[in-house]
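Q: Convert this sequence to structure tokens.
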Amino acid sequence: MVTKSEVQAFLNDFEVKSSTFGMLFRDVRQKNTQALFDLELTRQKRIEIVQSIIWSDYSEGPNDDVLHGIASLWVFGKTHKKTEIYIKISMGPKDDPAICISFHPAERPMTYPLKPTI
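A:
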């Protein structure tokens, strides 16, 4: 199980990387494009949402990137307009932009193992 400090360290590194090299969104799937339109999510708003991720938004990871084998994948969840958003991010290749691989409404309920219970 990943710890709060491990998630926070990843988020700190991701912030530095995306601030330095930018952030690339992979928008190749039609359902993701339609979801962005439906939720009125501009590129800038997506950047703001990704930048607002905190350790308690953690859902899973780090997972191996079996498709590209570049960097580990981390999954987080945020709520926008009462819709839970599934966000999968990666540091991406060295000296290239950080990557947001998935950004769409969650297809099933997400779990947040580090979120404090009330």
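The first strand starts at residue 23 and ends at 25.
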